[in-house]
From TrEMBL, chain A:
Gene3D superfamilies: 3.40.50.920, 3.40.50.970. Residues 10-175 form the Transketolase-like pyrimidine-binding domain. Keywords: Thiamine pyrophosphate. This is Transketolase. Its cofactor is thiamine diphosphate. Belongs to the transketolase family. It comes from Aquaticitalea lipolytica. Coiled coil: none annotated. The keyword Iron does not apply.
UniProtKB/TrEMBL annotation, chain B:
Keywords: Thiamine pyrophosphate. This is Transketolase. SUPFAM superfamilies: Thiamin diphosphate-binding fold (THDP-binding). Its cofactor is thiamine diphosphate. It comes from Aquaticitalea lipolytica. CDD domains: TPP_TK. The lineage of its organism: Bacteria, Pseudomonadati, Bacteroidota, Flavobacteriia, Flavobacteriales. Belongs to the transketolase family.
Length: 317, 281
């Protein structure tokens, strides 16, 4: 079984910051906006290197989204930065009308998504943002898995014309994908080939899926692990090809099972190839304060939860 | 265009377009549209420095954003008659498969429209972003925008108003249509806003008042003064006092025609009060 090496824990938000720094050098049309969270979003370098292209908007997210939409008129490529909760739910109508419906080339970059924000608690731990964003016509939704991939995704979305929601997080997590990888929007990545079960994971759950595959391997179960960094547009073919081989699937995400990756996968399967599926996701609940590890354990979003889901789904084949 | 008479003739034709558009589909917003006819005609034909044709980025020309998108009839009529698309297309207003949606949108590719509006309170932020893009592009042209007075009840405006002054966005002229009416009644009845002039000034804007917002000469004078205030480190606001439903006597001075179309008889009366000038579509 193919294995992956963690080259050292890093936070995905720093991957975003590094990508933005790179874009600052390579693409003069890239501009950045932030609603009083420069340090949290790791936008310091871009601000320092390109003060004329950086807009501190204060604690005013609705205005930030509108400004970003306006900046596209004149050829700029705006990257907005704030927490995922304030990037989506708080400004849904602004994104809907001024960005998505208006076909504006805005990149909504959202950190501190999900439970792993930790101690701040449920007010800040949005678990509904993927659903909110994927429902908007024309919106691309990306949730990369580690530092290197987040950096690559940040660079790639500047080349894609159209609104993008880029979701990443706060905690230091395993960094295991290649440095300076080429990021292809909408293209699923097969991390491990397997024959007994397909595990499709996004974001922080991808590493957990790899860990689960190791455990399963020891139990004699051959798991195929797919990294779905792009939730919309979804790589239907990669999913269908895999379940044709394995006959069952587990989806894993740091999000509510309502509206998340799992539902998108279920839609594809229901339409083309009904397949037993289990969901590793939060169960229609808000989060709470705690350490990231405690929360991921309590809400069933780790490798142990994936292993359990695999054992369950295999019995349904 | 050069003289006031030509602009006034165009205003009358625009009024006819508005009435006929909303009558045909028995829906739409004639009141605010009629109240802003003179402003739109003056803006697009005299005030703004526009290029021929339409380019979304609007580089090297003044550009306009309508925030209170429900007054789309006046916008569409003035855009068509300024050459952005054929006036015959006004016939499709609010019909299925039309580029002239109930509220303006870029989604159907109608030339002249740069942002969707309809959900209120979003246009000023967009206009400010476009103004900052102009600065980054070293483009000395101006951004114009129009907002309803009732629309100022939306909080996003005040984020934008604070931002504009803080960032010294001085290449923008935001006009507020002060007709004192909104859907549920007068703005003073629904949610009194106090002194809008005082609020803009307190936020650090230059405010120009146009008392006769349905008078072409007064609009030209006021907007020329507003232009002269740009480029001096402060955003510029124009308070345009208009009469809702202007030019059609039974629609004036009431909120009743905010979002209601005239019936056949009312249309005939309205059209009789505004004899054809440049030709109906």
């Amino acid at each position: 079984m193919k294995t992956y090496t963690n080259t050292g824990n890093k936070d995905t938000r720093s991957g975003f910051g590094a990508g933005l720094t790179e874009l600052g050098k390579t693409n003069e049309n890239v501009v950045a906006l932030c609603a009083d969270l420069i340090g949290s979003l790791k936008m310091d370098d871009f601000k320092k290197n390109h003060p004329e292209r950086f807009f501190q908007v204060g604690i005013a997210e609705a205005n930030m989204i509108g400004l970003a939409a306006g900046l596209t008129i004149g050829g700029k490529i705006p990257f907005t930065g704030t927490f995922a909760n304030f990037s989506t739910g708080r400004v849904y109508d602004q994104i809907r009308q001024s960005v998505a419906y208006s076909d504006k080339n805005v990149k909504i970059c959202a950190s501190h998504a999900g439970l792993t924000l930790g101690e701040d608690g449920a007010t800040h731990q949005i678990l509904e943002d993927i659903g909110l964003m994927k429902m908007l016509p024309g919106m691309t939704v990306i949730n990369p898995c580690d530092y290197n991939q987040t950096k690559a995704a940040t660079i790639a979305i500047a080349e894609h014309h159209g609104p993008v929601y880029l979701r990443f997080g706060r905690p230091s997590v395993a960094n295991f994908t290649p440095e300076n990888q080429k990021f292809e929007i909408g293209k699923a990545l097969h991390l491990i080939e397997g024959t007994d079960v397909t595990i499709v994971a996004t974001g922080h759950l991808v590493w957990e899926a790899l860990e689960a595959a190791k455990t399963l391997n020891e139990k004699g179960i051959s798991a195929e692990v797919i990294n779905i960094h792009t939730i919309k547009p979804l790589d239907d073919k990669a999913i269908l090809d895999s379940v044709t081989k394995t006959g069952c699937i587990v989806t894993a995400e740091e999000h509510n099972y309502l509206g998340g990756l799992g539902e998108s996968v279920a839609r594809v399967l229901a339409k083309h190839k009904p397949t037993p599926q289990e969901f590793v996701a939060t169960n229609d609940t808000f989060g709470e304060s705690g350490t990231p590890a405690q929360l991921m354990d309590k809400y069933g979003l780790n490798s142990a939860a994936i292993v359990k889901a695999v054992e369950k789904v295999m019995k349904r084949k | 265009m050069s003289n006031t008479q030509q602009l006034e003739d165009l205003v009358i034709q625009v009024r006819r377009d508005i009435l006929r558009m909303v009558h045909k589909v028995n829906s739409g917003h004639p009141g605010g549209s009629l109240g802003c006819a003179e402003f739109f005609v003056a803006l697009f034909n005299e005030i703004m420095d526009r290029k021929d044709g339409f380019n979304m980025d609007g580089i090297g020309e003044d550009i306009f954003f309508l925030s209170n998108g429900h007054i789309s009839p006046v916008y569409y009529s003035v855009l068509a008659r300024a050459g952005y698309f054929e006036v015959e297309e006004l016939n499709t207003f609010r019909l299925i498969n039309s580029r002239l949606q109930g509220h303006p949108t870029t989604h159907e590719g109608l030339p002249g429209i740069r942002i969707a509006s309809g959900s209120l309170g979003q246009g000023m932020s967009v206009a400010l972003g476009a103004a900052q893009a102009k600065k980054l592009n070293n483009d000395s042209h101006l951004i114009y925008s129009l907002h309803g007075d009732g629309e100022l009840q939306e909080g996003q405006n005040w984020e934008a108003i604070m931002y504009a002054a803080a960032k010294k966005v001085d290449n923008i002229i935001c006009t507020v249509d002060l007709n004192g009416q909104q859907i549920d009644g007068s703005t003073d009845d629904v949610l009194p806003m106090g002194s809008i002039k005082g609020k803009f000034e307190a936020f650090g804007w230059v405010v120009i008042e146009i008392e006769e917002g349905n008078n072409i000469d007064a609009i030209l004078k006021g907007m020329t003064e507003a232009k002269s205030k740009t480029g001096k480190g402060k955003p510029v606001c124009v308070l345009l006092k208009t009469v809702m439903g202007n030019g059609v006597d039974f629609m004036m001075h009431t909120h009743a025609w905010h979002g209601k179309a005239p019936n056949d008889e009312q249309l005939a009366i309205g059209l009789a009060q505004n004899a054809e000038t440049l030709g109906d579509y």
